[in-house]
Amino acid sequence: MTQETEVIRQVLQGDIESFRIIVERYERPIVRMIRNIINNKETCEDIAQDVFFTAYRKLASFDPARGNFSTWLFTLARNKSINTMRKKRPLSMSELPENSDTNNPSDELAEKEFLDDLDSKLNSLPLTQKRAFVLAEFEKLSYKEIAQIERVRIGTIKSRINRAKNELEKALKETWYEK
Amino acid sequence: MKSEEIYNAWKERRSQIDIRKNFADEVMSQIYRYERRKRKPLFDVNRLIELISAHRFVKAAVVTTGAVTGLVRIMFVVYAFLGC
């Protein structure tokens, strides 16, 4: 029995505080995933909070035989993100933390421009491609796990990720040659 | 800067997130609130007493209702007694 399954069993037996272990373990990946999908810094933590609350309420329905707990949690996060995006169109992405080690202002500016171009490209990808890409590249989930979350075949996920990567590569090269 | 470096820098930038420090606390308080609500009985006498004593008008309404009910009951008893 994994440590996670043990924690879930304790929560289901009434030890509510044990759920904090799950929240603290997954808060960053879940917030990051939602933020990368919906592009709204302000609401992503509220949605993530809702994801954990729903996970707590539905914990009894989690079946370890059907997949990992993390896959189940990411599926909840995916569904909440889709619902939020249906209600409200995403905002533009210009709020991510900037991290640059370069001292030369022109280099810094050029790098920022490259990164912003990639942001815009990611935001313009079809949502299915974007979700698959985010789960694979930022959350490091396997194709199998992503296929479970998206409820499609592994081949479909591979092709979505490849197409997303190609688009981003194209955008990067275009910006690169323009400079 | 090579394009691969830019791509990695971009991924690094998007991976950085700041979560509010009390995020887990907020989730846990939401869960505890939910559990308290769930466990609260449908009819709670103490809560009803609290509710009545907290509002002047509710208090007056309860006293009036009690007085009227008492009077009606006395009238019924008198009527039944005289009727026989």
Give a short synopsis of this structure.
The complex is a heterodimer of chains A (179) and B (84). Chain A is mainly α and 179 residues long.
How does the SSE layout of this entry go?
The complex is a heterodimer of chains A (179) and B (84).
Chain A: H1 3-12, H2 19-38, H3 41-57, H4 69-87, H5 105-124, H6 127-137, H7 143-150, H8 154-178
Helix pairs in contact in A: 2-3, 2-4, 3-4, 4-7, 5-8, 6-8, 7-8
Chain B: H1 3-15, H2 23-39, H3 45-54, H4 56-83
Helix pairs in contact in B: 3-4
- State the shape of chain B: rod-shaped
Instruction: Estimate percent helicity of chain B.
Output: over 70%
Low-confidence stretches of chain A: 90-103
Instruction: Sum up the overall morphology of chain A in one term.
Output: elongated
Task: Report what the structure shows.
The complex is a heterodimer of chains A (179) and B (84). With 179 residues, chain A is mostly helical. Chain A is 73% helix and 0% strand. Chain A folds into 2 domains: 1-90, Orthogonal Bundle (Rna Polymerase Sigma Factor, Chain: A); 102-179, Arc Repressor Mutant, subunit A (Orthogonal Bundle). Chain A is elongated. Chain A starts with a helix and ends with a helix. Chain B is mostly helical. Chain B is 81% helix and 0% strand. Chain B has helices at 3-15, 23-39, 45-54, 56-83. The longest helix of chain B is centred in the last third of the chain and has 28 residues, at 56-83. At the A-B interface, helix 2, helix 3, helix 5 and helix 8 of A face helix 1 and helix 2 of B.
